[in-house]
Amino acid sequence: MMTKDPILKVEHLSMRFGGLMAINDLSFEAYRGDITALIGPNGAGKTTVFNCITGFYKPTMGMITMRQQGGKEFLLERMSDFEVTRDAKVARTFQNIRLFSGLTVLENLLVAQHNKLMLASGYTILGLLGFPTYKKAAAQSIEQAKYWLDKANLTDRADDPAGDLPYGAQRRLEIARAMCTGPEFLCLDEPAAGLNPRESLALNELLRSIRKDTGTSILLIEHDMSVVMEISDHVVVLEYGQKISDGNPEHVKNDPKVIAAYLGVEDDEVEEVIEEIEIIAETAPGDTH
Amino acid sequence: MTNTTSTTAGADGNLMARALREAFYAAIVALGLFILFVGLKTDQNILNELILVQRWGLLAIFVAIAAVGRFLSVAYIRPWAAARKATRAAAPAREANFFVRNFSMIAVAFLIIYPPLMVGLFGVQSSLKWVDNFGIQILIYVMLAWGLNIVVGLAGLLDLGYVAFYAVGAYSYALLSSYFGLSFWLLLPMAGILAALWGMILGFPVLRLKGDYLAIVTLAFGEIIRLVLINWTAVTKGTFGISGIAKASVFGIWSFDVSATNNFAKVFGLPMSSAYYKIFLFYLALALCMLTAFVTIRLRRMPIGRAWEALREDEIACRSLGINTVTTKLTAFATGAMFGGFAGSFFAVRQGFVSPESFVFLESAIILAIVVLGGMGSLVGIAVAATVMIGGTELLREMEFLKHIFGPDFTPELYRMLIFGLAMIVVMVWKPRGFVGSREPTAFLRERKSVSGSFTKEGHG
Would residue B251 count as lying in a domain? Predict the structure, then answer.
């Protein structure tokens, strides 16, 4: 593999909750322009890693470096949650969707452009007096929202309350909303959870087009292997808070440690599993499990 | 169930029988409930002996009310309501009529012509009651409730001590005007700024708290302010309050002091009356209300207003979008407090007297009740609720005829809290989200559709 430019570097990250070591000395890198997937069995610590990256948790140990396009570096573990989005340009979504259900779809996207609009409105004061700078910025922000509505295929529902959308559309809206903050690095916590196969496909399309059109790098947690293997360039596998595998999807898929973690076999049985996998790979090449 | 007119005589008889049966049960329950409370009364006779007074007649009235009420409810009101609901569901959604669509415009127009109308109807001196007791009183509460609406309705932060900012505004004007002789027009913005400052001082320590905990701390804050006003006698004169507060003038051009040479009535050659001052205050209150409404409507369309509403919906999501929730909450507290401060300084100038008694917890509760009753976030709903609640209180004082029914000892004002309790329960059953439960979106692509109250959240922090 050629040398890639890392956008996010996680080094020796540890997170302890009381006596529980949720993440133990985890190091990995996410590369610019890649879709990186973070996978692992339930309780492996994936969401904890996410919360550490996005500032919602303060890690017990370790360093998380975000390197922006211009070469500016941010140490995310030192920043609070809103600064991670505002300054370091890392946006995130949530495993259990967190939309502003009483606001309309359009308003959800406008709230995401808060900091930009605050500046344009002179911290509300100029806007309150009706200065044209704010009006222009407001019109621009609606254009920006329209762009993402179109991408997420939600233009028809723009004036409906977000809480009224079906589940799949809510997922897409949450991604669109995160993108409206103008991130360079997008963290998605199980974006395909609860989606049917068709919606899952549409999600893949959306993520690909995000990467292609905006150059945003993506980190995602996912259980749906069809999504992971289909779209990710790089997969990191966690188990019990430790990294057990790291590489391209093909490599990870055939890593005996990963298979063991997912199928739950004893260490000495790993050899057998490898043989089995080889047989399966020969007979059904498309199968992911 | 669908149509009462088509029900057969058999079904009708059935309904009557059921109604009678339920009325009977209600009578028994009422009898059981009231027999010891109402039927019997312990009293002392002239020899200081404890005697049992029997009031079977009164008990019979209570029981009869319960029975008849139940009968009417089951036999007539419920079928009627069901039929109405069915016809409503069947009829297509009607276009809102002219009155409903332009309600706020019509209301403002009415308020502008209100004082001359009252003067025309009742004469200069008798119009005082209608302009002052009803008009100004209601407008003060509209202003307060609109201010609290920013904190509770938009940002979703439950504030039970809002009256503290009202007190800060009132005392700012009272103290600064009596100690330094500053004018109302200078002190009005100053009172707002001071109240906003206190809003931030309250905001800082309580930002980490949510929901019930926040409510308790704000409640305590309101009490602290009141107790300081009572006990800091050197400055505030304690429970005696501050009296003889200077009146406001029409931008310094005309004064309302009787001795002043530029007295309004003298300049215009009118007979001396306090009504002119009250009419002036009415328009001043109206202008302040309009300012509050204008700023609130404008702020809702600003990023800060949207951030407040987003904060009410989901605080964590707000933070994930790069919104600094600390400053957002502080601005909500400060803005709400500022309008409370305006209302307070207006209150002081209108009364000419302030004392800590005006700023008890009950005031906070009434203001909060107005916001909840009106529908959190809705300016029109809140204005209607303020009119109903405060106008209703004043109206009860006017109910002289009730004395003829219940005897000369009956004072209707004493029952106002009871009546309000009942009225609020009725409104909350009938419209759980307040008079205006839906929310107007602040931006739209194709059409402005109001958001049903079932989607909006009340906020938890």
Answer: yes
Name the residue among A223, A129, A163, A187 with its Cα closest to residue B441: A163
B155 with B46, same domain? Answer: no
Chain A contact present for B208, CB below 8 A: no
- Please indicate whether, in this complex, the C-beta atoms of B320 and A54 are within 8 angstroms of each other: yes
CB B135 within 8 A of CB B115: yes
| Per-residue pLDDT reduced to its tens digit, A142-185 | 888 889 888 888 888 888 888 888 888 898 899 999 998 888 89
- Enumerate residues 150 to 169 of chain A having a beta carbon within 8 A of any beta carbon in chain B: 155, 158-164
* B438 in a structural domain: no
**Tokens found for residue B438:** 């839906």
Probe site for chain B from A114, A133, A141, A173 (most B CB atoms < 10 A): A114
Interface of B with A in 297-326 (CB under 8 A): 298-299, 302-304, 306-307, 309-310, 312-314, 316-325
Residues B69 and B156 in one domain: no
Asked if B444 has any chain A CB less than 8 Å from its own CB, the reply is yes
Of the partner residues A100, A118, A128, the one whose CB lies closest to the CB of residue B314: A100
Q: Å from A39 to nearest chain B CA?
A: 22
Over its C-alpha atoms, chain B yields an Rg (Å, rounded) of: 26
* Contact: B320, A111; criterion CB under 8 Å: no
pLDDT in tens, A80-108: 888 888 888 889 898 888 988 888 899 89
B70, B193: one domain: no
Give tens-digit pLDDT for A6-60. 888 888 888 888 888 888 888 888 888 888 888 888 888 888 888 888 888 888 8
By C-alpha distance, the chain A residue nearest B440 is A103
Statement to judge: residues B343 and B213 lie in one domain: yes
Domain that holds residue B163: 114-361
Same domain, residue pair B267 and B127 = yes
Residues B23 and B145 in one domain: no
Quick one: B74 and B121 in the same domain? no
DSSP letters spanning B267-322: HTTPPP-THHHHHHHHHHHHHHHHHHHHHHHHHHTSHHHHHHHHHHH-HHHHHHTT
Q: In Å, what is the CA distance from B344 to each residue of A172, B291, B369?
A: 48, 15, 19
Are B70 and B123 found together in one domain?
no
In a domain, B260, yes or no: yes
Domain count across chain B: 2
Amino acid at B233: T
**Whether A124 and B303 lie within 8 Å, measured CB to CB:** yes
For residues B333 and B157, what is the distance between their CA atoms, to the nearest angstrom? 9
Say whether B87 sits in a helix, a strand or coil: helix
Q: Is residue B422 part of a domain?
A: no
| Cβ proximity of B121 and B41 under 8 Å | no
